[in-house]
Amino acid sequence: MQTKDINENIAWAKINEDVLRSMENPRMGYWVALAACVAMIMCAVLAEIYQYQVGMGPSGLNWPHMWDLYIATFVFWIGMSHSGTLLSAILHIIQADWRKPIYRFAEAMTLFSLMTAGLFPIIHLGRVWNMYWVLPYVSDRGIWPNFRSPLVWDAFAITTYMTSSALFLFIGMIPDLAICRDNARGWRQKLYTVLSLGWQGDDRQWRHFRRIYLMMACFLIPLAVSVHSIVSADFAMSIMPGWHVTTFPPYFVAGALYSGCAAIITLFILLRYFFRFDEYMTIPIMEKTCKLTFAIAMVWTYLNLIEFAATWYGHDPVAKELLIQKFIGPHAPFFWTMLFCGSVLPFTLAFEKLRRHMPTMFVVSLFLNLGMWLERWMIVTPTLSFSHQPFAWDIMWPSMVQWAIVFGSFGWFGMLFLIFVKVFPSVSMYEVKEMVFHRRHYHSDELESKFHRRAGDRQSDADPSREGA
Amino acid sequence: MFVSNKFLSKRRGKGVGQGKVSQCLAMFFSVLASVFIVAAAQAEVPNAKPPTGTHSGEDVPQPIEFPHDIHADINGINCMYCHTYARRSKVAGIPPTSKCMGCHSIIATDKPRIKKLTEYWENNETILWNKVHDVPDFVHFTHEKHLQRFVFKNEGMDVANVSEVCAFCHGDVKKMTVAKKVKPLNMGFCVRCHEANDGPSDCWKCHK
Amino acid sequence: MSGSDINRRDFLKFMGLGGVGAATLSGCDMPTTITLEEGKEKVVAYLAPEEYAIPGIGVTFASTCKQCPSGCGVHGRVREGRVLKLEGNPDALNGKGLCQMGQASLQGHYNPDRITQPMARKGGALEPVTWEEAWKLMKEKASGAAQGRSAWFTGTVSGHQSVLLSALNKAWGSKDHYVYEAINNAVGEAVNKSVLGDAAPAYRLDKAKVVLSFGADFLGTWVSPVHFSREYSKFRTGDRGVLIQVEPKMTLTGGNADLWVAARPGTEGVVALGVANVLLSKNQVDGKQLPQAALDVISQYGVDKVTEISGVPGDTLVRIAKYLNERSPSLVLSGESAHGHANGYQNAMAAMMLNVLLGNVGETIEASNSMAFDELKAKHGNSKAMLDFAAAADAGKYDVVFFTGANPVYTAPDHLAMAEKVAKVPFKVALSMFPDETTMAADLVLPLSSPYEEWGTSVSPYQPTDAAISMSQPLMKPLSAETKSLGDILLSMLKYQGIKDYEGFDDYYAYLRSELDGLPGSVKAGKDGDEFWSAAVQRGVIKVPTKAGSLKVNLGDVSPGGHQSGGDYPMHLIPSSNQTMYDGRNANLPWLQEAPDQITKIFWDSWVEMHPKAAAKLGVKEGDFVRVESDQGAVEAQVYIYKGVHVNAVAIPVGRGHEEYGRYAKGNGVNPLKILSSIVDGKSGELATHATRVRISKVGRSEELPRLGGSEVQVGRRLVNTVSADVFKRTEGA
Amino acid sequence: MSLKNILENWSHYRRAHEEGGHHEYEHMWGMAIDLNKCTGCNACSVACYAENNLPTVGKDRMRKGQGLHWLRMERYWDEPDLGGDDKEYQERGGSFLPMMCQHCNAATCEPVCPVAATYHTPDGLNAQVYNRCIGSRYCSNNCPYRLRYFNFYSYYEESWPEPLNMQLNPDLSVRDKGVMEKCTFCIQRIRTGKDAAQREGREVKDGDVVTACAQTCPTEAIVFGDLLDKDAQVTKLWKAQEVELGRAKQDKSDGELRGYRVLEGLNTDPCVMYMDRVREA
Amino acid sequence: MKRYYVMGLFSNFEEAFSTISEIRQHAIPGVTVDDVTLKSPIEHPEIEEILGDRGSPVPKFSLFGAIFGAIFGFLFLASAQANFLTQPQGGKAIITLPSNIVLSYEMLILFGVLSTVIGFMINARLMTKRHPLYSEKVSLDQVGVMLELDEKNVDSLKELFKKHKVLEIREEVSQ
Fold first, then answer.
1. What is the ipTM of this complex?
2. Which site among A381, A391, A396, A397 would you substitute to test the C interface, given the most C Cβ atoms closer than 10 Å to its Cβ?
3. Which element (helix H / strand E) includes C337?
């Protein structure tokens, strides 16, 4: 049983070779997946064209459900974007080096989730063609966006977050892009030459590189927290029951980390399987991720429970009525599914056997994501269904247009990710080298290994010959 | 009085002050800052009281090529003699055919354009003019308010005559034959003048 | 700003449609349409405008609403030659208020489905013809009709139209003028006539302290709803009165009642007797106002018996009696749901008996101010006219029938087979604005102008305070040059018949002016000629001196009449009328189709109101389709469940289920009138609309009810708080 | 856009405009609706359709909840009447509540609009500028009264087929798809009334401006006017009911006054006062 | 005198470091450790001990950027609000601190990040042409030690390299 995060005897050249290999010669399966993603996007594009031409009507939105899946899915994707950058930054600062093999794709996931999420506030606008009015640009009309609106905060926050995480991803990738440049030919070489910005690995570059990476990590941690707090402000700043909740900022951040971690597990397993990254995306790293996810799940559960308690014992009859409606009303099936997926299912992560069983984890992580998606839906819609004015109570089911666009957003994300893994190294080569180097020379892993070691495992670990140098 | 009004006229364009920054920072930020501040400052340059802006209008074909120059300039007819509703209604109004005929049943009856006019009149046919100065339908402009203020009350203006006031938005019609749109008549055009002259800043004045 | 002494005809001639700034449409834009192309829009130059007509500024003209027989006065706001909005005329009976039907009558005027030219039946289908051809057809078919073999079938008519119509009938030697209204108060009028000697006395709600209404929906459709709403407002303020509504299905009035009592359909008279019984026995009300025969009948209806027959609990009767006894004066009304039975006349009589017993006659029921000019009075419709017409048409009595203002083919029950009977008439002329069922069954269709395009006078059937002639004047140039006003057509027909009296008039306008000039000096108040005319047109109403009326009391038999068992058809059918569709004439107005019913909040469709118990028994829930089947047929509609309908009854609103009548009406909902049984009121001969017995069965289909609003209750939010009348009187009472 | 401007007028810009801000308003249009008089007849709603170019959307869209009705007549049944099966019938009718935009002084819709399409006018109105609206619909979500309606479709062609479009009021825009809209207290009538007063060189007096709903109401249950005008009927009604702007929960001394504002506890400070329905006990 | 760039490629850090240690101890006269450029696939964690602490001004860029972003952000928002044609007030102040703080915070981070990146680009001499002596092996698994030195010292340096098991030596004339 593998207990080490990584085999420290792995050769640097092999790391280069393995990762670069993953970037070339897409197999048939890749093209099929890409085509499937594009097809999904086409569904969404057709739906959006229809919606653009006819108006928001076909989306099935109504009075009082002015928002529905679009905003729920927006929050979902924003949430998913959080783990990559935030975990990468936190783990970098606390020097948890097991992040190194997995942070690259997690950050890419962040960027692409953001790119997906950013589409939704645009799609949901009644007059898409005027969306730039949200941005503070100088016009001679003397009018500005309303800076009080949390939607404008969203625009600022998402722009900042997208810029910063894209830069974070890019900066962290520069040494790897140099490796790619050195090994590539043809168009790829031209591309990587430009992108690697003339990186040559000299000590000056490395020195500044270390500082910038640390500085950006420092910026990104509060940024990521603020971004999801701001997204929660879309709801918390309102006076609607079920939205106007003081615990929303931490609740959203926890939910975001949770769904992000779940997505990391999903992609971890997929990459590990398809790119045969068994040596880098090792089961111990998986286990660590799972433990982290479990911890976050429990935080999320706790925040849920205190929200229920605060509402139940609070003095707002409107909010209480809404809570009752969530429990037993028309949304109850989704609500309980969400609670099951979000709070009960993560207990599978507490068992080592299950944690180490990749197919189980794959399925579980999908369900966790489903739960998180439902969470967002259950935040947005029941409040609109059962708000202050009982005459305006209503229930609705989203139309095919909304579903198609939500469905297509997964295709969009998938497509971006698929393109990414073939164009950019999805495992950080230089950092895995660092990790290997570090473990080889400082033996930090040894203590840990001892700590975890079990009698039955000793043999396999003790055999260094298996993992060649 | 609405709170922001009195401050609108006080705006003067000056950039946000910056301290000393390192060379690199200065280079970088000057680019960025120029996007926001410099452009903003330029937009805030106080206007002369009549609104500014020009527009090169197209020639609009009309059923009868009405010569504004002959009427308003050579004969010095007041604009409101024909556009009679301007002082009491939203719309300035096109002169009714009866008004044209009031003079032209005697004057210049042999001119081809007048013959055309007479033909309309005798056939009891309304003339469909093509609209030159059009604003979007969500803009509810009122001639009455503007004329009452700038012509009749002569508030804060040193205006010699009506046509000068009309020229704020319609250009020097006196020098035109068929009217042409020579001012942009867009929101910035309106807003700058409202700011300069303490006009109302309530959106609902014009948009409703 | 009302129109002054101007020549309105010239105004209309010169005022082009549209005017300056013709197209003021479309607000916000797609990016493609934001560019303003110069010279794209047109500006209309007037030929020779009147001084008062300033583009951009609205001018108000008075006219009269014809959307229901009440005939409220309206002010129309006109801009650039288009009438944009109607308001109530403060000088008219309705005051400044207007009901939703009146507001929506504009959509009748601008309706896209209006008939714009004459049509004649050629080989089965109606095809457009010119007026010349139409007149030619009239000459061939109508004028050739033998003496007495022609008839008119109209809705309520009054004023000079009525005068011309009578003259025309006289010229043709026919006495047959059927005046039909599907929603009417004919039974009540018959009782009033027999008891009080006045068919339409003035009901003084404002004076009453208690109003006990047996199904009279005076806020909704009964007699003159806007006027009664104003009275109701006074009734509710100051020393606030109590409103008790006894009816099997909650009407708008019931929806505002302090006490709503569900009585088994047709037993309203029994309830009235029971209340009288309690009053006499428990409250020691003096019964000497009543004849002995009535007292005898009352004594038979003790509380227990009444409860057994009507299902109204004894304590409710006692409560009603207590209100009536303690607060005086009171007013007892009876309406549609009490009248529409085989014993409807007795029900109305029993209600009248309560008025007599409580001494309301002369107090809250006053003699009407009947107008001096009998020939101008409204000929108010009833449904007996339709039954009679059906019989006469079936017997082949007519060669020519003229239809206007009524739609019998739509409103007649199936058992009358009205379509077939109409078809038996060799030549049918419909004078109509819309392609309704009757119009489409006609051989010749003459397009009418809308009430807002024509000159006219009318007299409201209900004249409580002052008698008045309402003026109609065109608010704008006719939308279609081919339409003509009913007055003009009648006048042309009269001239055509060679009646000398009318030959001097160019058109109806000229006729009206000369007729009004001929009014006695007492009416004209010293004004003459143009001055009087313009004053009349400006004000919209001409107040007319009244003959002081008087009321007698001559109470008839108050025994309530039998109560039939349903047999195979256990449930009662209530074809309820409401202020949206009225009798179906409003079904082509999208505003009213979209306006939710006041009680159920359902729009655009028909529904079946059921009591929760009845629904539970049948096993249906809200939105399920049910089949309502009478001995005459069946209709299917969705169920709405609430406790405002009697457990043994289902209510279906009248007015939808058109087969013709334009895009908004066609194929929308069902028509419950079609399945009415052939029961008539024994005494008045009116169609017993509420007497039909039905059975209900599940269809098995279900759909979301087209209904506005979510929760039916406030879930404790106290959006509408209710305070007791005691508190109100203490703080705000007079 | 100068720093000087900000610094000089800092205190002005930083003042909360909810307290004592009303004296800065030119007018404060308000309503008083007597639910004792209101019969729920819906005339106000149709009058609003007629005045404000509201489209009819048809059965299916209306059922979906995509209709537009700036003034909706809400009807509630009394809870005791529905509760349990012990009562066979309703003892009273419904509670009718005409709901139009409440023109809150602390409107929840205003701060959330990303493009400031909704704001407060110097007339104390909650404005909605259609041509600025981008259709984020946040305002509607944040309106506790749910009084904002959205143009889910472009209705012009289908709701006003020729010649129905000739009825359209040229004084206000016809809204296109993707735009939020709501009751404006008949802003075009307010403008007309003020213009007329100005033309005649006088102050606007009570009765110069009447909204379509108030004008048509058969029972005169709706009273509209300027709350800053001491002689206005609406002001007197507010005073008599001891309801004041700027106070979240009205402190009514004897507890028997009928005036209240809907969802007052939310501190939205609406300009529409309702008066309790009255029924015999 | 001609100056040369000389680079030796080593198979691991130990060998490269021992080379540098000797240079540090003036194994070659006139050549100091400051002339050494180390090229490596990763950054050695203890590189300061060998090359000395050469410092990095990147954090200063971050600080300046962040401060500028916050101040600029706040002033930008405040001036926009103060000069807004029509203010949506909703009972609140015109310049609202809560929203401005939130947005200034975002601006702080945005400008901080941008400024950091720019600082990095400038300081790390990125976006310049690669050195002619750059070897692709450096990005694989070898460690390069490069010096710029006078012609006379080239041979002794090569000696030094060889002593420490250099794998490959490249040289180029400095321009």
1. 0.88
2. A391
3. helix C336-339
